[in-house]
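Protein modeling request. Please complete all fields; requests missing the sequence field cannot be processed.
Requester role: graduate student
Desired output: 3D structure, token encoding
Chains: 1
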Amino acid sequence: MVIDNKILDSLTAQAKASPRLRMNLNFHQSLDEKCHRFLNAVEPGANIPIHRHPEKEESLLCCVAGYVSSPTTMTAPLSTT
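Delivered output (81 residues):
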């Protein structure tokens, strides 16, 4: 699968329309798979509860951003000037 702007734009639109302000596009076929691979579109104002998966590790790669983030905070939008 090629992840292009059409896929990213569609996922972002779904996130904006969601009450949770976030949406996944899963690449894994089952929750039983050892590795869960997915895109997660997260809009400003979304609540991401702290959680753990004791039996799994979790990594995050930020592909597109309008905000500067750290593992625990979201800050103001980046300046475009």
